[in-house]
């Protein structure tokens, strides 16, 4: 439902997004029936397609040509998909978006080859654009995203980490790819340097806000809404913003510390979810998300007014208020 | 260039590759990048054979080696085990190395080579996946898949820079190396994806061992012939011949058979 609502926000992009969807399907077409099935399985699970949307919207601030824009929009979504299929192996996740993950449906090896295949397709696709700068930005982003995930593994189960550790991690894990989507979209559309910079920062701030909300929803949504057990991030040892705030209460701190040292029953998991949900941590985390959201909106103030700016603003507001 | 100099050059390129992909956490918790010297040799062979060479070409050769390491890391991800820290970081190691290859070529504006390697990654992934499906059944199909997995990335480099004259020898020697490793693994009662598929096809590990021994014998003969047809220097020929050890595995088999 929320996904549908979000898609309504950019309904004026529907014809272009339908085209992107078709291109995505073609892009994952493989000579290997197994990789074909696994990639389509992943693609058909859907998603918000937030990265292609930002590529297209950013392109509206330059000379917009869908045939050029799709050359960036499609590979950025593919790169995101490739990272998801590998993330499910890292997190041992059985479910994503309410359906079995590739690793659960097949096995880890098939998930690895599917991710490699999709990444190969993304690079094959985007290298039709002969812009060294674009490739330098994107390759650096890909490296930083990996570094973010490596840090996430290093920081797992460390309840005493600080806010800066968390922000540094989500910047790399999520914000940079959204930021690059905006930057590269504007770049291929030939927007001027100032516009590119504002859009890059807009993407970064919106990405930070988006991830914080995601981390909040891990506690405030139901298993059904999430398509996976609520509190999964914490179960996997990921210390997210609500946890960082909740641990300030000594009683909750002790509960969290103990919980991180053992395997939790379902009842224990639900208890922790309730404790966090009922604490002030959710509101505190929301305030941080709002700060980033306001910064994102501030960047839009520097850009020409028009439909693209209006849609970006609506998406920003929606991200701040989304339920799952 | 004598054998020692060839070894030194390979070591120098190997060091550069390892330096390019160095990452503290990955180095600490994973097996580290797999950079096979035999592959490096074939990547630098045009240089040893006094063909056109430049720092950009050498950089491309290094990135090919990095892509091999990326895909190899993902081969190490195990099935049916809980994702421990090593396994999680091995997944990320492969992704990280892929990012490095992309960045290294983007920095020298070698976008065409990025594309060639991306196409090769697709083909190799497809072939690797075929081991998990019923696409390949016969030994010939397994052999073809292994050849492609071993050489596709190298060939994208050869084709890009016009070094195709080494392709035939490379496929023979790299396949020879691969089958040697598979035989080693089999004789130590180990398992691999390829061995499982071979034994499924041939129905018994002893048949697989025999097939591998015969294959190594025929590859050895062909390698000797092929080296002879090239106009390599005496030292280069010698170096290559020292890389293959034809009778070791047969001896192992005979010892076990009494």
Describe this structure in words.
The complex is a heterodimer of chains A (324) and B (258). Chain A is built from 17 helices and 2 strands. Chain A is mainly alpha-helical and 324 residues long. Chain A has one domain: Orthogonal Bundle (Farnesyl Diphosphate Synthase). Chain A has a two-stranded antiparallel ribbon. Chain A is globular and about 55 Å long. In chain A, 51% of the residues are buried. Chain B is mostly helical and 258 residues long. Chain B has a single domain, classed as Farnesyl Diphosphate Synthase, CATH 1.10.600.10. Chain B is globular and about 55 Å long. Chain B starts with a helix and ends with a helix. Chains A and B meet through α3, α5, α7 and α8 of A and α4, α5 and α6 of B. Chain B: GO terms for molecular function: heptaprenyl diphosphate synthase activity. Chain B: This is Heptaprenyl diphosphate synthase. Chain B: One of its GO terms (biological process) is menaquinone biosynthetic process.
Largest interface by Cβ-Cβ < 8 Å:
A-B, 47 and 52 residues
Helix content of chain A: over 70%
Low-confidence stretches of chain A: none
Broad shape of chain A: globular
Number of strands of chain A: 2
Task: Summarize this entry quickly.
The complex is a heterodimer of chains A (324) and B (258). Chain A has 324 residues and is an all-alpha fold.
Give the arrangement of secondary structure elements.
The complex is a heterodimer of chains A (324) and B (258).
Chain A: H1 2-9, H2 14-27, H3 33-44, H4 50-59, H5 66-90, E1 95-96, E2 99-100, H6 102-105, H7 108-126, H8 132-155, H9 163-188, H10 193-220, H11 223-226, H12 232-235, H13 241-246, H14 250-260, H15 266-278, H16 281-300, H17 307-321
Antiparallel strand pairs in A: 1-2
Helix pairs in contact in A: 2-5, 3-7, 4-5, 4-9, 5-7, 5-9, 8-9, 9-10, 10-16, 10-17, 14-15, 16-17
Chain B: H1 3-20, H2 24-29, H3 37-48, H4 55-75, H5 85-107, H6 111-130, H7 139-161, H8 167-187, H9 193-202, H10 205-229, H11 234-242, H12 248-257
